[in-house]
Amino acid sequence: WQGKGYNTSLTAGARLEAFGFEATFKPQVSWSQNREFEFIPGVYGSGYSYFWKGNIDLVQRYGDSSFWTFDWGDTEIRYSWKKLTAGFGFQSPWLGPAFLNPMLGSNNAGTYPKFDLGLRKTKVYMPYTNWYLGEIEGRAWLGYLTESDYFDNDSTNDHRQLTGFSVTYSPSILPGFTIGANKICINYWKDKSVKYLNPLYSTNDQNTQEDQKASFFVSQVFPQVGFEVYGELGVDDYNGRGFANPFHTAIYTVGAKKELSFFRRFQKFSIRPEIIFEWSNFEMSQDFQLQWNYMGYYSHGFIAQGYTQNGQILGAGSGYFGNSQYIALRTYFSKGNVSLFLHYNRPDTNYLNNLGITTKNTDWEGKKQHDQWARYKAIRTYGINVQYFVTNSLLIGVEFNTSWIINPKYAQDENSSYRNNYGALKIKYNF
After folding, report:
1. How far is CA 136 from CA 231, 233, 277, in A?
2. Which of 8, 43, 48, 422 is deepest in the core (most CB within 10 A)?
3. Is the Cα dihedral 194, 196, 201, 202 positive or negative?
4. How many angstroms separate the CA atoms of 199 and 202, rounded?
């Protein structure tokens, strides 16, 4: 999380590998000036919490003063034997093929301690026939989540147990094709149970104090033409009733990357541009217009903090209760790369969509009510990102962007918008 004003992040690390062991130490220290800005007051334990009452620990501002934070970052200890691996640490799992908005695992939130077991990418052969079937990879982990200081004053629910599973398979008969699935189950740590360690565990009991989410994804790479396409479908609190309406609570992401083959004639100059596109739709499914208020994929009726760690969502960083569209031109050259991008997202579309539930047509007949209903918050960002290797060990990165933030407080004022300018400098040195 970055506040208004000056922000900085410092990290350094070391790594040791020997006899199957891997020890990585890479913590991160950050500082935020955290200057004041306008936002809708929170409705949980603090005015800095999220503005919409629907069970989510999503902090808008971390207090009213500058602050330091410490995070363990990619620190972990791991042991691998052949293709089996086990580790304890804090690395954030990036789940699925998404470039910008993974549904169930990204580096958007701070890290959390976890223990994992898994199978590294392994070639699979049919017994006795030695027929090559493809490659499989999988991981299971148990994590310990913590709520922020801005949510509530109930110390009994400060921590949650996260049980995660991820598996991918690349069949030999379809070169470049990958299919996979992710499953997450969250319950309060005080109610920890070994049943959640079963990847096939499910229940139709609507009163269980747990939150289950799943996503399914596919990707196809065509290296001959420099093209990749992928898609991911997410389902919240899935159960047997989903066969009647498979799109209940469903969200999706689709994306593609395409090398611009026209420029291949310039390969002797080591120039390789590509187009990156990603579209995410995290809006509530339309059947909720006939049921009840539903905040979205990352909230939950019984798990009050939702799918978060220390006040930030563990999955998608933009469009989390709405939608997101991203397109970029990234050009690689011998010393680094340059990206020009446009990103448009409406993070809280469900906030206004929910206003239509359990209402009558007469409630919306006046122009004033219609104007309020139509005031979605939207963020449009243009930017450039440059990464340049001064030497093989020294990397310098520079980013500039400007955002036009429309209706930041869902106001009816026609001039309810402002611009936000952002600049960043990154220096990295590898010994």
Report:
1. 19, 20, 27
2. 48
3. positive
4. 9
For residues 321 and 298, give the distance between their C-alpha atoms in angstroms, rounded to a whole number. Answer: 8
Short-list 186, 158, 25, CA closest to 91:
25
Question: Residues 119-164: pLDDT tens digits?
Answer: 999 999 998 888 999 999 999 999 999 999 999 888 889 999 999 9
Residue with tokens 């390969």: 267
Q: Residue 165, Cα to own-chain centre: how many angstroms?
A: 16
Using alpha carbons, select from 30, 130, 122 the residue that is nearest to residue 80: 122
Q: What is the CA radius of gyration of the chain?
A: 23
CA separation (Å) from 235 to 30, 280, 346, 370? 34, 14, 20, 31
The C-alpha atoms of residue 407 and residue 371 are separated, in whole angstroms, by 12
Q: Which one-letter amino acid corresponds to residue 105?
A: G
> Do 108 and 2 meet the contact criterion of CB atoms below 8 Å apart?
no
Give the N- to C-terminal CA distance of the chain in Å, as an integer. 28
Q: 45-53: long-range contacts (C-beta < 8 A, 24 or more apart)?
A: 45/150, 45/151, 45/152, 45/153, 46/149, 46/150, 46/151, 48/150, 49/148, 49/150, 49/151, 52/295, 52/348, 52/351
Cα angle 236, 374, 359; round to 5: 65
pTM: 0.90
214, 180 contact by CB (below 8 A): no
Q: How far apart are CA 384 and CA 91, in angstroms?
A: 28
The arithmetic mean of pLDDT across residues 66-75, rounded, is 96
Write out the two tokens for 293: 């208020």
Contact criterion met (CB below 8 Å) for 302 and 212: no
* Local structure of 127: helix, strand or coil: coil
228 vs 151, 225, 274, 316, CA distance in Å? 41, 9, 11, 21
Q: What distance in Å separates the CA atoms of residue 252 and residue 320, rounded to the nearest whole number?
A: 11
**Residue whose pair of structure tokens reads 């990290």 in the numeric block:** 11
- Residues 124 and 208: beta-carbon distance below 8 Å: no
Question: 410 is written with which tokens?
Answer: 């869902």
